[in-house]
Amino acid sequence: MITHGAFTCEPWALRSTRLDLDVLAQAESLFALSNGHLGWRGNLDEGEPHGLPGSYLSGVYESHPLPYAEAGYGFPESGQTVVNITNGKVIRLLVDDEAFDVRYGRLRDHEQALDFRAGVLSRRAEWESPDGSAVRVTSVRLVSLTQRAIAAICYEVTPLDEPLRVVVQSELVANEPLPKPGGDPRIAAVLDAPLVGEENSAGDARSVLVHCTRRSGLRVAVAMDHLVDGPPGTHVVAESSADLGRVTVTASLAAGETLRLVKFVAHSWSGSRSRPAVRDEAEAALAGARDTGWEGLLSAQRSYLDEFWSRADVQVDGDPEIQQAVRFGLFHMLQATARAEGRGIPAKGLTGRGYDGHVFWDSEAFVLPVLTYLMPDAVAHALRWRHTTLPMATTRAAQLGLGGAAFPWRTIHGEECSGYWPAGTAAFHVNAAISDAVIRYLDVTGDDAFEADAGMELLVETARLWRSLGHHDADGAFRIDGVTGPDEYSAVADNNVYTNLMAQQNLLAAARAAERHSDRAGRLGVGEEEMAGWRNAARAMSLPYDHRLGVHQQSEGFTSHQRWDFGATRPEQYPLMLHFPYFDLYRKQVVKQADLVLALHRRGDAFSPEEKARDFAYYEQITVRDSSLSACTQAVVAAEVGHLDLAYDYLAEAALMDLDDVEHNTRNGLHIASLVGAWIALVDGFAGLRQRAGVLSFAPRLPSGLTRLSFTVSMLGRRLTVEMNQKSATYTLLDGAPLRIRHHGRPGKLSVGTPLSRPIPATHPSKEPTQPPGRRPIRRASS
Amino acid sequence: MITHGAFTCEPWALRSTRLDLDVLAQAESLFALSNGHLGWRGNLDEGEPHGLPGSYLSGVYESHPLPYAEAGYGFPESGQTVVNITNGKVIRLLVDDEAFDVRYGRLRDHEQALDFRAGVLSRRAEWESPDGSAVRVTSVRLVSLTQRAIAAICYEVTPLDEPLRVVVQSELVANEPLPKPGGDPRIAAVLDAPLVGEENSAGDARSVLVHCTRRSGLRVAVAMDHLVDGPPGTHVVAESSADLGRVTVTASLAAGETLRLVKFVAHSWSGSRSRPAVRDEAEAALAGARDTGWEGLLSAQRSYLDEFWSRADVQVDGDPEIQQAVRFGLFHMLQATARAEGRGIPAKGLTGRGYDGHVFWDSEAFVLPVLTYLMPDAVAHALRWRHTTLPMATTRAAQLGLGGAAFPWRTIHGEECSGYWPAGTAAFHVNAAISDAVIRYLDVTGDDAFEADAGMELLVETARLWRSLGHHDADGAFRIDGVTGPDEYSAVADNNVYTNLMAQQNLLAAARAAERHSDRAGRLGVGEEEMAGWRNAARAMSLPYDHRLGVHQQSEGFTSHQRWDFGATRPEQYPLMLHFPYFDLYRKQVVKQADLVLALHRRGDAFSPEEKARDFAYYEQITVRDSSLSACTQAVVAAEVGHLDLAYDYLAEAALMDLDDVEHNTRNGLHIASLVGAWIALVDGFAGLRQRAGVLSFAPRLPSGLTRLSFTVSMLGRRLTVEMNQKSATYTLLDGAPLRIRHHGRPGKLSVGTPLSRPIPATHPSKEPTQPPGRRPIRRASS
User: Fold this and answer.
1) Can you give the residue ranges of the Glycoside hydrolase family 65 C-terminal domain (chains A, B) (predicted)?
2) Which residues contact A9 (CB under 8 A, 6 or more apart)?
3) Are residues A443 and A567 in the same domain?
4) For residue range B313-348, what is the model confidence (pLDDT) as tens digits?
5) Suppose A368 and one of A437, B63, B249, B509 were both cysteines; which one would form an S-S bond, judging by CB atoms 3.0 to 4.6 Å apart?
C-alpha cells in the first residue's frame, strides 16, 4: 500500500492522494478510527462503494453453533463472531438529481488522511456529477478518545461552479448487507441480519435506534444528533424505522457557498440492562458530546494524543518509511487499547472482522509488553478483563481434567471458541502469556492494588494449570507433553521449549507472589506444599536439546523430523497451510512463526549467547513466516546475535505488514500485534531492552541504515528517554527518583538532569544465517 | 444378551425363547440375515415395534456435506452414509379387526432362532388379541447365499381356538421413518427420506418400486412376488404408490386352518444403469427365485452352509458358550463376506448402520486374516474391491503430497470420509493392513492371476506411500513421523512400532514381488533404484525402544509420558473418549486397543520371546480396551507368552462382544471383526497358528477351561485339520499333496492319510500381568 503510488511517506500521517478502488478494503482498515471501545472502519462517508462496511463495539458479538464432522469431548459447541453494529458513519449526498458516488461522474481530486497527532480522518473530494455539476465535499471524522461512546463527523459540501440544490441524508443503518465471508454458509446465515429492532425514534435533527442481537441477546443503542449550518431555506427532517434512522437536510447553495453538518453519534450496549436504560445511556452520551461541541471534541482529541506521544513517541532517523510506520503502528495500538476498559484486545483491534473479532494470545504476548512501557493503565484494564473471565477459564480447565485456569485460545466473551482442538485445547501457552504480562506489569508499575485484586490470582491459577498439566518423569524431570506451542506448523508435541520456559517463569512467579503475600495466598488456598510443587516443577523443567546439532529442539524430537522440502515448494504455495495438510506440516521441520526464537527473546536469561546464535541460525533455515507474529521476534533475536541488517529487514516487514499488505489480508483488519512489532523490533531489538526483576537493561546497536533512534519508556512511574546513534547511547531520566539501568551488561544509575552517555561496542557477528528459498524478509527498494 | 435369560446356549443356533423389548434393537442385530450383498436386520415381520429398521445393499449410500468449525487443507468435504433401502421384510397381519402387535393383547409364546446350518431366521409366536382372538404366526426368513439378490419369507398364520378372518399385508416400504441418530442434525436431515421414487407398479401378487438416492444418484429397485396358499375364498390384491408396494391377502380361516404365504423379494442397484435396466434386473432375479421355489432356496442355502462348515467349523469342548459364540461369529463372518463381490466389508457387515456403514482397516486387519484360511475366494473379492478404489487412493495420496496410494480411513465408495484428520489423514496403517492381507492371501493360495491383476499393484503403490511418508535421518535410520497407529488414544506420533513394522513388511514384499516379476514391475514403473530404496528403508526402519524399562515404545517417547490416572477414573467414565478430551488421552500412557501388542502378533518374527513377554506385561497395565478390536489380539499374545487363563478370558470377551453387548452398541450392528476375533483367539492364540513364507506353524496349548479344540484351515488348496487337547495335538491333511508344518518350532511333514500327533510342551509363564483397575477382561460366572 505504502509502496502504492497513492500513499505518501510523511512522519505524522497516513495519506492517500487519490482513490484506488482496487485497494479500497485495505484502505478502510488502514484509515480505521477507534478508541478500543468503538471502532469505525474508514468507509467512505456515502457508504458506497465499500470493501467491508464496519462499525464495532468491543464485546458485542453474535453466537453461532460450531459444527463438527466428528465431534469429541470438550469441543466447544458455540462460537462467537463480532457483529457489525448500527452504522452511524453514513452521510449520503444528492447533487441536484445525481447521487454522489465516486464510481460515476468524474472524481477530479480525492484525498484521505489519518492524522496521528490530531486523531482524525479527514477527506477532501472534488467531484463532477455525470451531468457536470461540480462540488467539493470535505469531512473530518473522529472516534473520541475522551468520550468513549462518541464518534463525530464534520461534513461540508460546496458547489464549485454554479448554484446547486443538495440533499444530505445522514443515517443510522442497522443490518447493512455485508459481503459474504468465506467458510461455512450456515454461520454466514446466522450473521446475515443479526440485529433485531427493539425501538426507534426520530425528531428535530435526531434519531435513535435500539436493537438486540438475535442469539447472544446483547442490546445496542446508537443515537445521532446534528448541528446544521446552511443558507436560509435549509430544511431538516428526521425520521426512523426499525433499521434506519435518517436526518435529511435540503439546501440550495450558491457557487462557493457551504452547507456544514456536524454529526454526533453516541453508542451504548449491555448484555443485562433494559432497553430504556441502554437507550438513555446513548442519549446521555449524545447530550455530553453536543455540549462539548465539535471544536471541543477536536481539541480534547489532540490533547489526549499530545500526552500519548509525549510518553510514547519513537524517532527514527535515516528511514522515513520506518518513521511513518512505527508511528502508524503506535497510533493503532493506542486506538485498539485506549478505552477498551473491561474488554479484551482483539487481534484486529476494532478495524475489521478478521479472525471473527477474537482475542488471542498475541494481546498479552505482543501488545501488552509494549503497552506496559507506554500506557501501563491500559495494561491493567486488559489484564483485569482476563481476570473477569477467570470463572470461565477454571470451568474450562476442569472440563479438560486440569487444575487452575485454562484461558481460551480465541474468544470474545471469555468462553473457548476454537473449533480446532490442536489449537483450542492444546495451545496452553496463552496462559503463560497472560502470566508473563502480569509479571511485567507488576515489575514496571509496582501496582500493589492490581496484584491484590487480580494479578496474584491470575499467577496462581495459571501456575496450577501448569502443575496439573505436566508431570515428573522417572528421572525427576518435569515434562509438559502433548501441547501446541506458538508455531502453528507443529502441534500436540512434548516439551515445547517456549511453553516450558514460560511455564517455569509462571510457576516461580506464583510461588514468589504467594511467599510475599502469604495471607492472600492462604485465601486462594495456596499452602507450602503447593508452592514447593511449583518450585520443584520449575527447577526440573525439561528443555530438549540436540547435542549432535548443538541446538535446542523446538519440542522433543523436532530436530529428528524430516526437513520440509523447501526446494520443491513453489512461491504460490505459501502460506503453506492453504496448500498442504496439517499432518504433513506438523511432522516436518518447518516453522510458521517464531517459537523457539520467541523463547530466545522472552526467556533470554535461559540461554547463553552462543546458544542463542546457534539456535537462531538453525531455526532461520526453516522458518517461513506464514504468520504476522514472527518478523518482529526474528528482528529482536537477529539484533541480539549481531545480525543487524537482517534485523533491519525483519523490522521493516513487521512495520509494513499492513501498510504493504504483506499477507494479503489487511482488508479484514489490521494486525495490531505486528504493528506494535515495529516498536518491539526497534526497542527490544536495536536498543536491546530487556527487563528482569525491576531493572531495565539495554544493549543498543543500530543497523547501518539508521542514523538515530530515540524513544521513551515508563518505569516505576518515571519516564526514561533513550537516544542512540551508531556510536553511543544517551539515557535521560525525565522525572522521579533515580533509576538503575544496564548498558551492554554494565550497571549505571540515572538521575533527573544528569543524562548518561555510553559508547556502543562493536559487533562481531558470525556468518549471516539463511532462510528457506524465497522466504528472506522482503528487502525494500530503499534499503 | 446370552447372559440374558431369554437366550439359550446351544451349539448350532442362537435362540431367544421370549421377546424382551428392552433388548429388541440388540436382538435385531444378532438375528440379522445377510449374504454380504443384501442385509436384513432381524426386525419383526410386522415392522413394529422395532429398535432400528434396516435393509441394506452393500455400496448403496447417500452423500452429505461434512461440516467443520475450522476447515483445513485436505479435509474431505463430502461424507457417505449407508442408506436404509426399500424394506421388503414387512408382513402385517390383521386378526379380525385387531392389528397383530406384540405390545398389545397377550403374547402367550414367542421364539426366534437363527440356525447356523440352515441359514434361516425362524420365528414362532402365539398371540391373543386384546379381544381374545388367538393365533399362531410362524415365519421362516432367509437371505439367499446362492442367489445374492434374493430374500424370501415363508409366513403362516393359524387361528388357535376359533374361526377368524385375517388380512395379511405384505409390503415394500421405502423411506420408512427411522429413529434419529445422534450427532449433527443437519446430516440426519439429509438422510431423512433419501429415496426419490422413480417408478412403481403392482399386479397379481407382485409389486416393484424403483427409487434413486437424492444426492449420490444411486438407483435401487426392489420387487416382490408371492405364492399364497389359503382356503377357498382367499383374496389377493396388489397395489403400489411411490413409497409403497402392497399385496393384501384376505382369508377366513377355521380354527387350526393355516394361511401360508411365500414372499420372494429381489433387489438390484446401480450407479450408472437406467431405470428400466435396474428394474428389469430385480424382476429377473425374482423370476429366478420363483423358479427355484421356497424349498429350493432352503435346500440350496443348507448345501452352501454344509460346504462352508466343512471348511470352517471349529469345535470347542469344555465351554458350550464359546462353542456357540465362535460358530455365531463365523456364521456372521460368512454373512458379511460371502457374496460381497466387488464391495468392501463394512465394520458392521450389513447388520446395522453403526459407523455409517463404513469400511475400515479392520476388514483387512482382522476379517481377511481369518477368511484367508476359510474362504480364500472371498478374500480375493475384498482385495479386488480395494484395487478398484486405487485411483481414488492415488489421488488422495497426491492431495496429501505423498507418492503411491493412501487408502481411506473410512469409506463406502472409496473416497476418504473421515472428518477427523488425526484419523482420516494420519492413520496410514490401513495401507499396511491391505498389503498384509495381499501377502497372506498370495502365500496361502499362490493365486498368480490375482497377483498379476491386482496384488502386485497394491503392494507397489502402498510401498511407494511408505517410502514417501518416511525419511532417513542423520544416522540413516528410516523414520515415519507424525502418524496415528491402531491405538486411538494416541495420535500423530513418531515411529509407531506397529506401523513401522507393517510398513517394513510391505516394502520388502513389494521389492520381492517386483524382483520376481520384473516385466510387470516395469509396467508399474518400478526400477532397480526404487526397489533399492524400499529395501534400504525397510532395513533401517526405526523401532523405538526404552532401554531403562526394557520395552518397546508404542511410538517414540511414549514411555516418557505420564501414566493415565487409572485410580482416579471411575467405572462410568469408560469409554474414556466420551469423558476426557483427546489431547489428554493422546499425551498420556493409556491405550485404547492393542497397538504395540498387535505388532507382537502380526510381526512376532521381529521380537524375541523375552521381549514379547516384557512388552505384553507393560502394555497390559495401561490398556483399557475401549475398542472391540483389542481383546482377540490380547488373547493371542497372552497365549503366546504363556498366560493361558488370561488369554481364555480375552477370548470370551471377544467372542461375546455382541452376544453380551459388551460395548452397549450392538443395537447399531454387530462387530464383525470382534466376532472373527473368537477364531483368532482360538486358532492364532491357543493353536499358535503363524504363517511365514508359505509355511504354517503351530504352538498349541489349551487353557485349563477347555478340553479339546479342533478346526480346519485351507493352505495351498489343501485342507488341514488340527485337533488338540491338553496333552497333544494331531494334524491331519484332508486332501492334496504333502504339506510341511511346524509344531512348537519343530518341522513336520503331513501327507493325506497319515495324521501327525505331537505332545504339547509344558508352559512356565511368568507372573500374570495386571490390567488397569476395573479393566480386567470380564470373567464369566461359568469360568
Assistant:
1) 689-747
2) A2, A320, A321, A324
3) yes
4) 999 999 999 999 999 999 999 999 999 988 999 999
5) A437
